Amino acid sequence: MAPYESDGSTHAGEAEDVRDGRRTAARYVVPAAVVGVAAATIGLVPAFAGSGDPDLPKISAQQLIEKIAKSDVQQMSGTVKISTDLGLPNLGGLENSLTSGALSQGAGGKGGSAADPSAKLLELASGTHTVRVAADGQDKQKVSLLEKAAEYSVIRNGDQVWAYDSASNEAYHSTGAGDHKGAKAAPEDVPATPKDLAEQALKAAGKTTSVTVDGTAQVAGRDAYKLLIRPKQSGTTVGAISIAVDAKTGLPLKFTLTPASGGAAVVDAGFTQVSFSRPAASTFTFTPPKGTKVTQGDDLKDEGAARSHGTEKSAHGDGKAARGSEKAAPGAEPKTIGEGWNTIVVLDSGSKGGLPTDAKSKDGASKDGASKDGAVAGFLGSLGDHVKGKFGSGTVFSTRLVNALITDDGRVYAGAVTKDALVKAADAGK
After folding, report:
1. For residues 389 and 429, what is the distance between their CA atoms, to the nearest angstrom?
2. Measured between alpha carbons, how far is 204 from 230 in angstroms, rounded to an integer?
3. Which long-range contacts (CB under 8 A, 24 or more apart) does 376-385 make?
4. Looking at the structure, do residues 22 and 98 belong to the same domain, yes or no?
5. I need a surface site. Which of 76, 83, 101, 320 has the fewest CB within 10 A?
6. Are 53 and 169 part of one and the same domain?
7. Across-strand partners of 84?
8. What is the pTM of this model?
């Protein structure tokens, strides 16, 4: 073993809260942690190259995990660099159009805001971004996404949440009223710091995982231990996860996920500067600049709830319509098969026939001789690999981490597993 390495595999005597958390989240959290949402080789040495190798007391993997769990940093500020490389194909600007459309609609539909955090922070799912973070206890946080000529910030101060997009000069405001958990500075499913990513990855660690201490490093001028997480199973697309843990505070300073196929990291998020001093109070105050278009998120939620209630009332008013809708709906909840890193989510999309690639729609050819539906489906089909098996046939869409099989009978199999694993799962499901 390396000087700081221990077996680190989970045992029956581990802390109950850590073990229970892993079992609960293992099925879903691995893909979520890297949509997210997050080393250049399996050895992970290049991730810390030239950053020093401080001499720290020996520590076991379990002790380091407990150190992370007990970390209670209340005041801090810093700059985080996040790089995500899922290996998605170049869509010629289409992805930018889709993103801008989603941002303009926001979470509230036509009345939404370009500053709505639920859409804006999804930009962290691709490319390289610089994020500034600050916190002063549980009630004051700020996350700022720095762009070339603009800045986007989400500020929480008590039950007040403001989001401001300088590019569009739009602001989004909401409160924590009616929510016993209070407001958050960012959507829960968008990990924006190494700590967010590390917590999700550690929850997924179980008997299918090797957890070891892999030496030391310096990150953002801080001495740190390196926690190395590797799947014991074959068939997963995850190669390894490295987490640099601050030796003094237990705060994760850097998170790096390497795919089993090798090459550049899929997710590399780390502090380039960090301070544990209390940020200035002005950091968490916000007043919309003159001329800013302000959208009240609470009003959008009320409108959405009213529309939902009206739809529900209408459905209940017509028993036949309600029963017909239930019958037409696909499988309500996805199920999972496999365990640990080989977990696959299975759902029924309700769309039979898979991805049609013919040039005609159901109503025949369009004026130019080809249907738009057929053209779009053909384009999507060209991005995937057509596969056959006992289940029939379908198309596999692949990234460097998460793959998905859409069968011609409308089922979807997805997970951080290989194409062969998806086909095998579909065959077993027949």
Report:
1. 11
2. 11
3. 380/355, 381/355, 381/357, 383/89, 384/355, 385/419
4. yes
5. 320
6. yes
7. 127, 267
8. 0.72
Amino acid at 6: S
Structural element, H or E, at residue 268:
strand 267-275
Q: Is residue 394 part of a domain?
A: yes
Looking at the structure, tell me whether residues 74 and 105 fall in a common domain: yes
What is the rounded CA–CA span in Å between residue 104 and residue 111? 9
Q: Rounded to an integer, what distance in angstroms lies between the CA atom of residue 190 and that of residue 192?
A: 6
Query: Is the domain of 310 the same as that of 168?
Result: no
Considering the domain architecture, whether residues 227 and 315 belong to the same structural domain is answered as no
**361 part of a folded domain:** yes
Domain that holds residue 414: 335-429
Phi-psi region of 92 (alpha: psi -120 to 50; beta: other; left: phi over 0): left
101 and 29 in a common domain:
yes
The domain boundary, picked from 328, 345, 372, lies at 328
Contact residues for 24 (Cβ-Cβ < 8 A; gap 6+)? 203
- Same domain flag for 311 and 344: no
In a shared domain, residues 24 and 106: yes
In a domain, 234, yes or no: yes
Residue 10 is assigned to a structural domain of this protein: no
How many domains in the chain? Answer: 3
Alpha carbon distances (Å) from 231 to 22, 26, 174, 252, 403: 14, 12, 41, 20, 17
The Cβ of residue 17 has, within 10 Å, a number of other Cβ atoms equal to 10
Rounded Cα distance, 426 and 37, in Å: 27
CA dist 193 and 207 (Å) reads 26
